Amino acid sequence: MSAPTAERPLTGLSRTAGGRDVPLARDRAVAHPPEEDRLLSWSAAIAVALLALLLRLRDLGTPDEFAFDETYYAKDGWSLVNHGYVLEYVDDANRRILTGDTTGLWRDEPSMIVHPEVGKWLIGLGELLLGLGPAAWRVPSLVVGCLMVLVMVRLVRRLTGSTLWGCVAGLLLTFDGLHFVLSRLALLDIFVAFFTLCAVHCVVADRDWFRRRLAGLVPDGIGSGWGPVRGLLWRPWLLTGGVCFGLAVGSKWVALYVLAGFGVLSWLWSAGARRSFGVRWPVLRSAVVDGVPAFVHLVLVGFVVYVATWTGWLVNAEEYERALSDTQYTQHDGGEPWPTRDEPDASGVGEVVQSLRSLAYYHRDVYVFHTHFLDDSDHSYESLPLGWLLVNKGVGVNAETDIQPGKQGCDAPEGSDCLRQVLLIGTPALWWGSCLALLASAALWVGRRDWRFGVPVVGTAITWLPWLANDDRPIFFFYAVMTLPFLVIASTLVMAQLVGTARSPGPRRTAGVVVAGSFFLLVLVNFVWFWPIWTNELLTHADWLDRIWFSRWI
User: Fold this and answer.
1) pTM across the whole model
2) Nearest to 145 by CA among 81, 43, 55
3) How many structural domains are present in the chain?
4) Residues 48, 78 within the same domain
5) How sure is the predictor about 378, in pLDDT bands with cuts at 50, 70 and 90?
6) I need a labelling partner for 475 at 20 to 30 A (CA). Which of 65, 275, 286, 503 fits?
7) 447 and 542 share a domain?
8) Nearest 5°: phi and psi at 421?
Protein backbone atom coordinates (compact mmCIF):
# COMPACT_ATOMS: atom_id res chain seq x y z
CA MET A 1 0.00 0.00 0.00
CA SER A 2 1.11 3.55 -0.63
CA ALA A 3 1.02 5.77 2.43
CA PRO A 4 -0.83 9.09 2.12
CA THR A 5 1.58 12.01 2.13
CA ALA A 6 1.62 15.57 0.89
CA GLU A 7 3.49 14.32 -2.17
CA ARG A 8 1.53 11.12 -2.82
CA PRO A 9 -2.08 10.69 -1.68
CA LEU A 10 -3.52 7.25 -1.05
CA THR A 11 -4.07 5.48 -4.37
CA GLY A 12 -4.79 1.85 -3.44
CA LEU A 13 -2.40 -0.67 -5.02
CA SER A 14 0.97 0.82 -5.89
CA ARG A 15 1.35 -1.45 -8.93
CA THR A 16 -1.04 -3.18 -11.28
CA ALA A 17 -1.04 -6.92 -11.91
CA GLY A 18 1.08 -6.18 -14.98
CA GLY A 19 3.70 -4.39 -12.92
CA ARG A 20 2.83 -0.83 -13.97
CA ASP A 21 2.56 1.99 -11.44
CA VAL A 22 -0.96 2.99 -10.49
CA PRO A 23 -1.47 6.68 -11.35
CA LEU A 24 -2.02 9.09 -8.50
CA ALA A 25 -5.62 9.66 -7.46
CA ARG A 26 -5.36 13.26 -8.59
CA ASP A 27 -4.08 12.23 -12.01
CA ARG A 28 -6.81 9.64 -12.45
CA ALA A 29 -9.49 12.11 -11.42
CA VAL A 30 -8.51 14.84 -13.86
CA ALA A 31 -7.65 12.50 -16.72
CA HIS A 32 -9.58 13.21 -19.90
CA PRO A 33 -10.33 10.90 -22.83
CA PRO A 34 -7.82 11.07 -25.68
CA GLU A 35 -8.02 14.37 -27.45
CA GLU A 36 -10.53 14.24 -30.27
CA ASP A 37 -12.11 16.97 -32.30
CA ARG A 38 -15.26 18.02 -30.43
CA LEU A 39 -17.03 18.91 -33.64
CA LEU A 40 -16.09 15.55 -35.14
CA SER A 41 -17.34 13.56 -32.15
CA TRP A 42 -20.70 15.35 -32.09
CA SER A 43 -21.03 15.16 -35.88
CA ALA A 44 -20.45 11.41 -35.75
CA ALA A 45 -23.05 10.97 -33.02
CA ILE A 46 -25.61 13.04 -34.92
CA ALA A 47 -24.86 11.10 -38.12
CA VAL A 48 -25.62 7.78 -36.40
CA ALA A 49 -28.86 9.20 -35.00
CA LEU A 50 -29.85 10.49 -38.45
CA LEU A 51 -29.21 7.03 -39.91
CA ALA A 52 -31.58 5.61 -37.30
CA LEU A 53 -34.11 8.28 -38.25
CA LEU A 54 -33.93 7.48 -41.98
CA LEU A 55 -34.36 3.76 -41.37
CA ARG A 56 -37.34 4.25 -39.07
CA LEU A 57 -39.07 6.99 -41.05
CA ARG A 58 -39.98 4.83 -44.05
CA ASP A 59 -43.72 4.05 -44.17
CA LEU A 60 -44.19 5.30 -40.63
CA GLY A 61 -47.96 5.45 -41.10
CA THR A 62 -48.13 1.76 -42.02
CA PRO A 63 -50.14 -0.09 -40.85
CA ASP A 64 -52.83 2.56 -41.19
CA GLU A 65 -54.68 1.50 -38.04
CA PHE A 66 -54.31 1.20 -34.29
CA ALA A 67 -51.51 -1.30 -33.67
CA PHE A 68 -51.65 -3.22 -30.38
CA ASP A 69 -51.88 -0.84 -27.36
CA GLU A 70 -51.88 2.24 -29.57
CA THR A 71 -55.63 1.96 -29.18
CA TYR A 72 -55.22 3.30 -25.63
CA TYR A 73 -52.30 5.71 -25.80
CA ALA A 74 -53.12 7.47 -29.07
CA LYS A 75 -56.60 8.38 -27.83
CA ASP A 76 -55.32 9.23 -24.35
CA GLY A 77 -52.76 11.61 -25.85
CA TRP A 78 -55.38 13.34 -27.96
CA SER A 79 -57.63 13.79 -24.95
CA LEU A 80 -54.78 15.19 -22.84
CA VAL A 81 -53.77 17.89 -25.31
CA ASN A 82 -57.40 18.86 -25.97
CA HIS A 83 -59.00 18.55 -22.52
CA GLY A 84 -56.10 18.47 -20.05
CA TYR A 85 -57.04 15.01 -18.75
CA VAL A 86 -58.06 11.64 -20.17
CA LEU A 87 -61.74 11.16 -20.89
CA GLU A 88 -63.63 7.98 -21.70
CA TYR A 89 -64.28 7.59 -25.42
CA VAL A 90 -67.33 6.38 -27.34
CA ASP A 91 -67.60 2.78 -28.51
CA ASP A 92 -66.85 3.42 -32.20
CA ALA A 93 -64.03 5.92 -31.56
CA ASN A 94 -61.40 3.86 -33.40
CA ARG A 95 -63.45 3.60 -36.60
CA ARG A 96 -64.29 7.28 -36.57
CA ILE A 97 -60.71 8.37 -35.97
CA LEU A 98 -59.40 6.24 -38.84
CA THR A 99 -61.98 7.80 -41.17
CA GLY A 100 -60.84 11.30 -40.17
CA ASP A 101 -63.71 12.16 -37.81
CA THR A 102 -62.42 13.76 -34.60
CA THR A 103 -65.70 15.15 -33.27
CA GLY A 104 -67.95 13.63 -30.64
CA LEU A 105 -65.34 11.08 -29.54
CA TRP A 106 -65.52 11.64 -25.81
CA ARG A 107 -67.87 10.99 -22.96
CA ASP A 108 -68.23 13.20 -19.89
CA GLU A 109 -66.45 11.02 -17.34
CA PRO A 110 -62.66 10.67 -16.88
CA SER A 111 -60.91 7.43 -17.78
CA MET A 112 -59.18 5.18 -15.25
CA ILE A 113 -55.69 5.24 -16.76
CA VAL A 114 -53.16 2.84 -15.20
CA HIS A 115 -49.86 4.39 -16.33
CA PRO A 116 -48.41 7.89 -15.74
CA GLU A 117 -48.88 10.56 -18.36
CA VAL A 118 -45.52 11.80 -19.72
CA GLY A 119 -45.43 9.44 -22.71
CA LYS A 120 -49.08 10.15 -23.51
CA TRP A 121 -48.49 13.90 -23.38
CA LEU A 122 -45.66 13.45 -25.91
CA ILE A 123 -47.85 11.30 -28.15
CA GLY A 124 -50.54 13.97 -27.89
CA LEU A 125 -48.02 16.64 -28.87
CA GLY A 126 -47.38 14.82 -32.14
CA GLU A 127 -51.12 14.64 -32.75
CA LEU A 128 -51.57 18.30 -31.87
CA LEU A 129 -48.95 19.30 -34.44
CA LEU A 130 -49.79 16.81 -37.21
CA GLY A 131 -53.40 15.76 -36.66
CA LEU A 132 -55.00 12.60 -35.33
CA GLY A 133 -53.68 9.75 -37.45
CA PRO A 134 -51.23 6.81 -37.29
CA ALA A 135 -48.18 8.69 -38.58
CA ALA A 136 -48.86 11.63 -36.26
CA TRP A 137 -49.16 9.59 -33.09
CA ARG A 138 -45.99 7.64 -33.98
CA VAL A 139 -43.77 10.66 -34.71
CA PRO A 140 -42.93 11.32 -31.01
CA SER A 141 -41.76 7.70 -30.62
CA LEU A 142 -39.66 8.10 -33.77
CA VAL A 143 -37.99 11.27 -32.49
CA VAL A 144 -37.38 9.89 -29.01
CA GLY A 145 -36.04 6.60 -30.38
CA CYS A 146 -33.48 8.45 -32.51
CA LEU A 147 -32.51 10.73 -29.64
CA MET A 148 -31.97 7.57 -27.60
CA VAL A 149 -29.40 6.47 -30.19
CA LEU A 150 -27.65 9.85 -29.84
CA VAL A 151 -27.51 9.52 -26.05
CA MET A 152 -26.15 6.00 -26.39
CA VAL A 153 -23.28 7.23 -28.58
CA ARG A 154 -22.37 9.97 -26.10
CA LEU A 155 -22.64 7.69 -23.04
CA VAL A 156 -20.40 4.97 -24.47
CA ARG A 157 -17.95 7.59 -25.70
CA ARG A 158 -17.74 8.82 -22.12
CA LEU A 159 -17.20 5.28 -20.85
CA THR A 160 -14.55 4.34 -23.41
CA GLY A 161 -13.01 7.70 -24.34
CA SER A 162 -13.53 6.78 -27.99
CA THR A 163 -15.92 8.27 -30.53
CA LEU A 164 -15.50 5.11 -32.60
CA TRP A 165 -16.83 2.86 -29.86
CA GLY A 166 -19.58 5.32 -29.09
CA CYS A 167 -20.71 5.10 -32.72
CA VAL A 168 -20.50 1.30 -32.63
CA ALA A 169 -22.86 1.28 -29.63
CA GLY A 170 -25.24 3.66 -31.38
CA LEU A 171 -25.27 1.50 -34.50
CA LEU A 172 -25.93 -1.66 -32.49
CA LEU A 173 -28.93 0.04 -30.91
CA THR A 174 -30.01 1.27 -34.35
CA PHE A 175 -29.91 -2.29 -35.71
CA ASP A 176 -31.99 -3.85 -32.97
CA GLY A 177 -35.48 -4.93 -34.02
CA LEU A 178 -37.15 -4.28 -30.67
CA HIS A 179 -35.90 -0.71 -30.56
CA PHE A 180 -36.69 -0.29 -34.27
CA VAL A 181 -40.34 -1.30 -33.95
CA LEU A 182 -40.96 0.58 -30.69
CA SER A 183 -39.57 3.70 -32.39
CA ARG A 184 -42.44 3.31 -34.90
CA LEU A 185 -45.29 2.69 -32.46
CA ALA A 186 -47.18 4.94 -30.04
CA LEU A 187 -46.42 2.86 -26.95
CA LEU A 188 -45.00 4.15 -23.66
CA ASP A 189 -41.96 1.90 -23.39
CA ILE A 190 -39.69 3.82 -25.77
CA PHE A 191 -40.22 6.95 -23.65
CA VAL A 192 -39.37 5.35 -20.32
CA ALA A 193 -36.30 3.70 -21.91
CA PHE A 194 -35.13 7.04 -23.33
CA PHE A 195 -35.49 9.07 -20.14
CA THR A 196 -33.92 6.26 -18.12
CA LEU A 197 -30.89 6.16 -20.42
CA CYS A 198 -30.57 9.96 -20.14
CA ALA A 199 -30.66 9.68 -16.34
CA VAL A 200 -27.99 6.96 -16.31
CA HIS A 201 -25.79 9.09 -18.56
CA CYS A 202 -26.14 11.95 -16.07
CA VAL A 203 -25.14 9.72 -13.13
CA VAL A 204 -22.07 8.49 -15.03
CA ALA A 205 -21.17 12.08 -15.96
CA ASP A 206 -21.53 13.05 -12.30
CA ARG A 207 -18.91 10.45 -11.38
CA ASP A 208 -16.38 12.18 -13.62
CA TRP A 209 -17.44 15.63 -12.40
CA PHE A 210 -17.20 14.61 -8.74
CA ARG A 211 -13.66 13.27 -9.09
CA ARG A 212 -12.42 16.29 -11.00
CA ARG A 213 -14.03 18.59 -8.45
CA LEU A 214 -12.51 16.63 -5.56
CA ALA A 215 -9.08 16.79 -7.17
CA GLY A 216 -9.40 20.54 -7.53
CA LEU A 217 -10.36 20.98 -3.86
CA VAL A 218 -7.68 18.69 -2.39
CA PRO A 219 -4.91 18.34 -4.99
CA ASP A 220 -2.44 16.83 -2.49
CA GLY A 221 -4.79 14.36 -0.82
CA ILE A 222 -6.90 14.55 2.29
CA GLY A 223 -4.74 12.71 4.77
CA SER A 224 -7.42 12.55 7.49
CA GLY A 225 -11.00 13.55 8.19
CA TRP A 226 -14.03 13.57 5.94
CA GLY A 227 -12.64 15.52 3.05
CA PRO A 228 -14.35 18.51 1.43
CA VAL A 229 -18.11 18.75 1.92
CA ARG A 230 -19.41 22.23 1.12
CA GLY A 231 -17.73 22.38 -2.29
CA LEU A 232 -19.44 19.13 -3.33
CA LEU A 233 -23.00 19.76 -2.20
CA TRP A 234 -24.10 21.20 -5.55
CA ARG A 235 -23.90 18.48 -8.22
CA PRO A 236 -25.39 19.74 -11.50
CA TRP A 237 -25.22 16.41 -13.32
CA LEU A 238 -27.16 14.68 -10.55
CA LEU A 239 -29.75 17.46 -10.63
CA THR A 240 -30.25 16.86 -14.35
CA GLY A 241 -30.39 13.15 -13.64
CA GLY A 242 -33.15 13.77 -11.09
CA VAL A 243 -35.18 15.61 -13.72
CA CYS A 244 -34.69 12.73 -16.17
CA PHE A 245 -35.63 10.14 -13.56
CA GLY A 246 -38.77 12.13 -12.77
CA LEU A 247 -39.74 12.04 -16.45
CA ALA A 248 -38.87 8.33 -16.67
CA VAL A 249 -41.04 7.41 -13.69
CA GLY A 250 -43.65 9.76 -15.16
CA SER A 251 -43.71 7.47 -18.20
CA LYS A 252 -43.81 4.17 -16.30
CA TRP A 253 -43.23 3.34 -12.66
CA VAL A 254 -40.71 0.62 -13.50
CA ALA A 255 -38.03 3.32 -13.76
CA LEU A 256 -38.04 3.47 -9.95
CA TYR A 257 -35.83 0.39 -9.87
CA VAL A 258 -33.22 2.12 -12.02
CA LEU A 259 -33.36 5.20 -9.80
CA ALA A 260 -32.69 3.04 -6.75
CA GLY A 261 -29.89 1.05 -8.36
CA PHE A 262 -27.95 3.94 -9.83
CA GLY A 263 -28.59 6.06 -6.75
CA VAL A 264 -26.68 3.43 -4.77
CA LEU A 265 -23.97 3.30 -7.44
CA SER A 266 -23.59 7.08 -7.27
CA TRP A 267 -22.99 6.86 -3.54
CA LEU A 268 -20.46 4.02 -3.90
CA TRP A 269 -18.63 5.84 -6.69
CA SER A 270 -18.38 8.92 -4.48
CA ALA A 271 -17.10 6.79 -1.61
CA GLY A 272 -14.49 5.26 -3.92
CA ALA A 273 -13.33 8.73 -4.94
CA ARG A 274 -12.92 9.79 -1.32
CA ARG A 275 -11.07 6.57 -0.50
CA SER A 276 -8.58 7.19 -3.32
CA PHE A 277 -7.81 10.58 -1.78
CA GLY A 278 -7.19 9.15 1.69
CA VAL A 279 -10.52 9.20 3.54
CA ARG A 280 -10.86 6.42 6.09
CA TRP A 281 -14.22 4.62 6.39
CA PRO A 282 -15.22 6.22 3.09
CA VAL A 283 -18.43 4.25 2.54
CA LEU A 284 -19.98 5.30 5.84
CA ARG A 285 -18.75 8.86 5.65
CA SER A 286 -19.81 9.23 2.03
CA ALA A 287 -23.28 8.00 2.95
CA VAL A 288 -23.67 11.20 4.98
CA VAL A 289 -21.77 13.87 3.05
CA ASP A 290 -22.48 12.54 -0.47
CA GLY A 291 -25.50 10.25 -0.04
CA VAL A 292 -27.76 12.93 1.39
CA PRO A 293 -27.07 15.48 -1.40
CA ALA A 294 -27.44 12.70 -3.98
CA PHE A 295 -30.81 11.77 -2.46
CA VAL A 296 -31.94 15.38 -2.73
CA HIS A 297 -30.75 15.75 -6.33
CA LEU A 298 -32.06 12.42 -7.61
CA VAL A 299 -35.02 11.41 -5.46
CA LEU A 300 -36.53 14.67 -4.21
CA VAL A 301 -36.03 16.52 -7.49
CA GLY A 302 -37.32 13.49 -9.35
CA PHE A 303 -40.39 13.37 -7.10
CA VAL A 304 -41.18 17.04 -7.71
CA VAL A 305 -40.84 16.56 -11.47
CA TYR A 306 -43.01 13.44 -11.31
CA VAL A 307 -45.81 15.22 -9.47
CA ALA A 308 -45.56 18.12 -11.91
CA THR A 309 -46.23 15.73 -14.80
CA TRP A 310 -49.70 15.16 -13.29
CA THR A 311 -50.62 18.86 -13.51
CA GLY A 312 -53.48 18.21 -15.93
CA TRP A 313 -54.90 15.59 -13.57
CA LEU A 314 -54.53 17.89 -10.55
CA VAL A 315 -56.32 20.75 -12.28
CA ASN A 316 -59.25 18.40 -12.95
CA ALA A 317 -59.07 16.44 -9.69
CA GLU A 318 -62.72 17.07 -8.85
CA GLU A 319 -63.76 15.11 -11.96
CA TYR A 320 -61.82 12.08 -10.72
CA GLU A 321 -63.18 12.52 -7.19
CA ARG A 322 -66.69 12.44 -8.61
CA ALA A 323 -66.32 9.50 -11.02
CA LEU A 324 -63.49 7.26 -9.80
CA SER A 325 -63.22 7.63 -6.02
CA ASP A 326 -64.81 4.26 -5.24
CA THR A 327 -63.31 1.94 -7.89
CA GLN A 328 -60.26 -0.29 -7.47
CA TYR A 329 -59.41 -0.13 -3.77
CA THR A 330 -63.02 0.02 -2.65
CA GLN A 331 -64.13 -2.86 -4.83
CA HIS A 332 -61.16 -5.13 -4.10
CA ASP A 333 -60.43 -4.55 -0.42
CA GLY A 334 -63.79 -3.24 0.73
CA GLY A 335 -62.23 0.06 1.77
CA GLU A 336 -63.84 3.45 1.93
CA PRO A 337 -63.99 5.83 -1.07
CA TRP A 338 -61.54 8.68 -1.22
CA PRO A 339 -62.16 11.01 1.75
CA THR A 340 -61.67 13.98 -0.57
CA ARG A 341 -64.81 13.07 -2.50
CA ASP A 342 -67.15 14.30 0.22
CA GLU A 343 -65.00 17.16 1.51
CA PRO A 344 -66.07 20.72 0.67
CA ASP A 345 -64.07 22.22 -2.16
CA ALA A 346 -61.10 24.14 -0.81
CA SER A 347 -59.44 27.18 -2.34
CA GLY A 348 -55.91 28.48 -2.75
CA VAL A 349 -53.24 26.33 -1.08
CA GLY A 350 -55.94 24.18 0.49
CA GLU A 351 -57.21 23.24 -2.96
CA VAL A 352 -53.72 22.21 -4.04
CA VAL A 353 -53.34 20.02 -0.95
CA GLN A 354 -56.76 18.49 -1.50
CA SER A 355 -55.95 17.67 -5.13
CA LEU A 356 -52.60 16.16 -4.13
CA ARG A 357 -54.35 13.95 -1.60
CA SER A 358 -56.79 12.80 -4.27
CA LEU A 359 -53.85 12.04 -6.55
CA ALA A 360 -52.33 9.91 -3.79
CA TYR A 361 -55.57 7.93 -3.43
CA TYR A 362 -55.66 7.53 -7.21
CA HIS A 363 -52.13 6.09 -7.12
CA ARG A 364 -53.27 3.63 -4.48
CA ASP A 365 -56.07 2.49 -6.80
CA VAL A 366 -53.70 2.12 -9.75
CA TYR A 367 -51.36 0.04 -7.58
CA VAL A 368 -54.26 -2.21 -6.58
CA PHE A 369 -55.14 -2.63 -10.26
CA HIS A 370 -51.61 -3.72 -11.18
CA THR A 371 -51.10 -6.03 -8.20
CA HIS A 372 -54.52 -7.67 -7.92
CA PHE A 373 -56.81 -7.24 -10.90
CA LEU A 374 -54.29 -8.58 -13.44
CA ASP A 375 -53.25 -11.68 -11.46
CA ASP A 376 -55.80 -14.03 -13.02
CA SER A 377 -55.72 -12.65 -16.57
CA ASP A 378 -53.68 -13.94 -19.49
CA HIS A 379 -52.69 -12.91 -23.00
CA SER A 380 -51.63 -14.85 -26.07
CA TYR A 381 -48.41 -12.83 -26.38
CA GLU A 382 -47.35 -12.83 -22.73
CA SER A 383 -43.87 -14.19 -22.04
CA LEU A 384 -41.90 -15.28 -19.01
CA PRO A 385 -39.22 -12.69 -18.17
CA LEU A 386 -36.75 -15.45 -17.34
CA GLY A 387 -36.26 -15.97 -21.08
CA TRP A 388 -36.31 -12.36 -22.25
CA LEU A 389 -32.54 -12.06 -22.73
CA LEU A 390 -32.70 -15.08 -25.04
CA VAL A 391 -35.61 -13.57 -27.02
CA ASN A 392 -38.13 -16.15 -25.92
CA LYS A 393 -41.33 -14.71 -27.42
CA GLY A 394 -42.28 -11.77 -29.57
CA VAL A 395 -45.45 -9.71 -29.78
CA GLY A 396 -47.44 -9.55 -32.99
CA VAL A 397 -48.61 -5.95 -33.12
CA ASN A 398 -50.21 -6.30 -36.55
CA ALA A 399 -50.87 -9.03 -39.09
CA GLU A 400 -52.69 -9.41 -42.40
CA THR A 401 -52.86 -13.06 -43.35
CA ASP A 402 -54.27 -15.28 -46.11
CA ILE A 403 -53.41 -12.92 -48.98
CA GLN A 404 -54.06 -15.03 -52.04
CA PRO A 405 -51.71 -15.30 -55.05
CA GLY A 406 -52.22 -12.43 -57.47
CA LYS A 407 -53.57 -10.04 -54.84
CA GLN A 408 -51.50 -7.11 -53.49
CA GLY A 409 -48.54 -8.39 -55.51
CA CYS A 410 -48.47 -11.81 -53.87
CA ASP A 411 -46.40 -14.21 -56.01
CA ALA A 412 -46.80 -17.30 -53.83
CA PRO A 413 -47.30 -20.63 -55.64
CA GLU A 414 -50.74 -22.14 -55.96
CA GLY A 415 -51.94 -23.63 -52.71
CA SER A 416 -49.96 -21.15 -50.62
CA ASP A 417 -50.52 -17.53 -49.64
CA CYS A 418 -48.79 -14.32 -48.53
CA LEU A 419 -48.97 -12.24 -45.38
CA ARG A 420 -47.82 -9.02 -43.78
CA GLN A 421 -46.70 -8.75 -40.16
CA VAL A 422 -45.15 -6.39 -37.64
CA LEU A 423 -43.45 -8.47 -34.97
CA LEU A 424 -42.02 -6.90 -31.82
CA ILE A 425 -38.85 -8.91 -31.34
CA GLY A 426 -35.18 -8.11 -30.90
CA THR A 427 -32.34 -8.85 -33.29
CA PRO A 428 -31.39 -12.35 -32.11
CA ALA A 429 -27.65 -12.05 -32.88
CA LEU A 430 -27.39 -8.90 -30.77
CA TRP A 431 -29.32 -10.28 -27.80
CA TRP A 432 -27.64 -13.68 -27.77
CA GLY A 433 -24.17 -12.20 -28.17
CA SER A 434 -24.92 -9.63 -25.48
CA CYS A 435 -25.68 -12.41 -23.00
CA LEU A 436 -22.09 -13.60 -23.38
CA ALA A 437 -20.84 -10.03 -23.16
CA LEU A 438 -22.84 -9.54 -19.97
CA LEU A 439 -21.13 -12.53 -18.34
CA ALA A 440 -17.75 -11.17 -19.42
CA SER A 441 -18.69 -7.74 -18.04
CA ALA A 442 -19.52 -9.22 -14.64
CA ALA A 443 -16.14 -10.99 -14.59
CA LEU A 444 -14.25 -7.84 -15.60
CA TRP A 445 -16.14 -5.70 -13.09
CA VAL A 446 -15.29 -8.03 -10.21
CA GLY A 447 -11.93 -9.34 -11.40
CA ARG A 448 -10.36 -6.12 -12.66
CA ARG A 449 -12.33 -3.65 -10.56
CA ASP A 450 -13.16 -1.77 -13.74
CA TRP A 451 -16.10 0.39 -12.69
CA ARG A 452 -17.31 0.85 -16.26
CA PHE A 453 -18.49 -2.75 -16.50
CA GLY A 454 -20.67 -2.19 -13.45
CA VAL A 455 -22.92 0.05 -15.54
CA PRO A 456 -24.26 -2.74 -17.82
CA VAL A 457 -24.27 -5.36 -15.07
CA VAL A 458 -26.24 -3.26 -12.58
CA GLY A 459 -28.41 -1.78 -15.34
CA THR A 460 -29.38 -5.20 -16.66
CA ALA A 461 -30.06 -6.58 -13.20
CA ILE A 462 -32.39 -3.78 -12.09
CA THR A 463 -34.32 -3.58 -15.35
CA TRP A 464 -34.77 -7.33 -15.72
CA LEU A 465 -34.72 -9.21 -12.41
CA PRO A 466 -37.66 -7.32 -10.77
CA TRP A 467 -39.94 -8.69 -13.48
CA LEU A 468 -39.23 -12.24 -12.27
CA ALA A 469 -41.35 -11.50 -9.21
CA ASN A 470 -44.28 -10.46 -11.39
CA ASP A 471 -44.54 -13.39 -13.79
CA ASP A 472 -47.99 -14.33 -12.49
CA ARG A 473 -49.56 -11.52 -14.55
CA PRO A 474 -49.43 -10.82 -18.30
CA ILE A 475 -46.10 -9.22 -19.13
CA PHE A 476 -44.50 -8.88 -22.53
CA PHE A 477 -41.07 -9.12 -24.09
CA PHE A 478 -41.06 -5.51 -25.25
CA TYR A 479 -40.79 -4.39 -21.60
CA ALA A 480 -37.16 -5.48 -21.97
CA VAL A 481 -36.42 -2.39 -24.09
CA MET A 482 -35.24 -0.84 -20.83
CA THR A 483 -32.67 -3.63 -20.55
CA LEU A 484 -31.55 -3.34 -24.17
CA PRO A 485 -29.27 -0.27 -23.73
CA PHE A 486 -27.30 -2.05 -21.02
CA LEU A 487 -26.88 -5.13 -23.21
CA VAL A 488 -25.55 -2.87 -25.96
CA ILE A 489 -23.15 -1.21 -23.51
CA ALA A 490 -21.92 -4.61 -22.33
CA SER A 491 -21.30 -5.76 -25.90
CA THR A 492 -19.48 -2.57 -26.87
CA LEU A 493 -17.26 -2.51 -23.78
CA VAL A 494 -16.27 -6.14 -24.32
CA MET A 495 -15.61 -5.49 -28.01
CA ALA A 496 -13.37 -2.57 -27.04
CA GLN A 497 -11.61 -4.80 -24.53
CA LEU A 498 -10.99 -7.45 -27.18
CA VAL A 499 -9.55 -4.96 -29.67
CA GLY A 500 -7.45 -3.22 -27.03
CA THR A 501 -5.71 0.13 -27.21
CA ALA A 502 -2.47 -0.83 -28.92
CA ARG A 503 -1.85 1.15 -32.09
CA SER A 504 0.43 -1.35 -33.79
CA PRO A 505 -1.02 -4.60 -35.16
CA GLY A 506 -0.33 -7.85 -33.36
CA PRO A 507 -1.84 -11.32 -32.99
CA ARG A 508 -4.01 -10.29 -30.03
CA ARG A 509 -5.28 -7.11 -31.65
CA THR A 510 -5.92 -8.89 -34.96
CA ALA A 511 -7.93 -11.61 -33.22
CA GLY A 512 -9.89 -8.98 -31.28
CA VAL A 513 -10.70 -7.02 -34.43
CA VAL A 514 -11.87 -10.18 -36.19
CA VAL A 515 -14.13 -11.25 -33.32
CA ALA A 516 -15.57 -7.77 -32.71
CA GLY A 517 -15.99 -7.04 -36.41
CA SER A 518 -17.64 -10.39 -37.05
CA PHE A 519 -20.14 -9.81 -34.27
CA PHE A 520 -21.01 -6.36 -35.61
CA LEU A 521 -21.47 -7.66 -39.16
CA LEU A 522 -23.57 -10.57 -37.89
CA VAL A 523 -25.90 -8.12 -36.12
CA LEU A 524 -26.17 -6.01 -39.29
CA VAL A 525 -26.94 -9.03 -41.51
CA ASN A 526 -29.44 -10.31 -38.97
CA PHE A 527 -31.15 -6.91 -38.95
CA VAL A 528 -31.44 -6.88 -42.74
CA TRP A 529 -32.82 -10.44 -42.76
CA PHE A 530 -35.60 -9.65 -40.28
CA TRP A 531 -36.43 -6.26 -41.83
CA PRO A 532 -39.63 -7.48 -43.60
CA ILE A 533 -41.29 -8.70 -40.39
CA TRP A 534 -40.57 -5.40 -38.66
CA THR A 535 -41.92 -3.21 -41.46
CA ASN A 536 -45.16 -4.94 -42.52
CA GLU A 537 -43.72 -5.98 -45.89
CA LEU A 538 -45.43 -8.56 -48.09
CA LEU A 539 -43.91 -12.04 -47.72
CA THR A 540 -44.82 -15.43 -49.06
CA HIS A 541 -45.67 -17.92 -46.36
CA ALA A 542 -42.41 -19.77 -47.01
CA ASP A 543 -40.32 -16.58 -46.72
CA TRP A 544 -42.12 -15.71 -43.50
CA LEU A 545 -41.41 -19.14 -42.01
CA ASP A 546 -37.70 -18.67 -42.85
CA ARG A 547 -37.71 -15.76 -40.42
CA ILE A 548 -39.77 -17.34 -37.65
CA TRP A 549 -36.99 -19.48 -36.23
CA PHE A 550 -38.97 -20.75 -33.26
CA SER A 551 -42.68 -21.45 -32.99
CA ARG A 552 -42.78 -19.74 -29.60
CA TRP A 553 -41.93 -16.40 -31.27
CA ILE A 554 -45.55 -16.16 -32.37
Assistant:
1) 0.93
2) 55
3) 3
4) yes
5) confident
6) 65
7) yes
8) -155, 145
Rounded to an integer, what is the distance from CA 15 to the centroid of its chain?
Answer: 39
Contact, 521 vs 510, CB < 8 A? no
Q: pLDDT > 70: what percent of the chain? A: 90
Closest to 531 measured CA to CA, from 138, 71, 191, 184: 184
Per residue in 163-208, pLDDT tens? 999 999 999 999 999 999 999 999 999 999 999 999 999 999 999 9
Domain-ending residue, one of 153, 182, 208: 153
CA angle 196–197–198, rounded 5-degree value = 90
Interior angle at CA 223, CA 220 and CA 227, nearest 5:
85
Quote the pLDDT of residue 331.
60
**Is the domain of 344 the same as that of 400?**
no
pLDDT digits (tens, 9 = 90+) for 287-317: 999 999 999 999 999 999 999 999 999 999 9
Instruction: Check whether residue 438 and residue 417 sit in a common domain.
Output: yes
Domain range holding 67?
38-153
State the burial class of residue 349 (Cβ atoms within 10 Å of its Cβ: 0-12, 13-18, 19+).
Answer: exposed
Q: Are 285 and 226 in contact (CB under 8 A)?
A: yes
Domain assignment present for residue 5? The answer is no
Residues 324 and 418 grouped into a single domain: no
3-state secondary structure 512-546: HHHHHHHHHHHHHHHHHHHHHHHCCCCEEHHHHHH
Which residues are CB-neighbours of 89 under 8 A, at least 6 positions away? 75, 79, 105, 106, 107, 111
With respect to residue 390, please indicate whether it lies within any of the assigned structural domains: yes
Closest alpha carbon to 214 in 455, 13, 23, 28: 28
